[in-house]
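anyone seen this seq b4? input:
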Amino acid sequence: MMIRRGLYLLTRETRDTAALVATVRAAIAGGAVLVQYRDKSNDAGSRSEQVRALVALGRSAGVPILVNDDVSLARECGAAGVHLGRDDAPLDEARRSLGPGALVGVSCYDSIERARDAARDGASYVAFGSFHASPTKPGAARATIGLLETARGLSLPIVAIGGISPENGAALVAAGADLLAVSSAVFDAPDARAAAHALASLFHGT
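predicted toks r here
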């Protein structure tokens, strides 16, 4: 499955499935090309309901839906893949469970060595951050723009995350980011579609 360059939306935890789907639909209409479902709660029923709703939306729009951390949930709900952090399932285990066509992304924080290992092991993309102060993860390690420039040699898509806005995102794209991953920038905006469009527009002409 191919990953397109552009806006990568990370969802916000909520029990309001209709509101969640509405925001994601608006973001896709604004230009989001990839969506990651993030929910750390123990409400298995709600999480399954929401992933299935987003997968249906994603299929109709041609946008892959990934699940953060939970390989079993991704498999059971027919998601396009999974995103893995440092303490999640090993990449090879996720790949075996989801199949060779699944998207498996890996958080690499501020480490080019972790990114090289992920690329060697067959990751679909690597993600670096936080590049700016983030309300979602205020204590996250801070990545430098030089990481993006170095990671260009890995020959797989590069994601930048952390406090990204239309004002600071252009520099990350210029340095080599293939996707800009955001949550608050869209979910906190009065107009999710317009906010997504402003970020997606940073890739126009690049």
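The longest helix spans residues 44-61. DSSP finds nine helices and eight strands in the chain. kinda curious what u guys think
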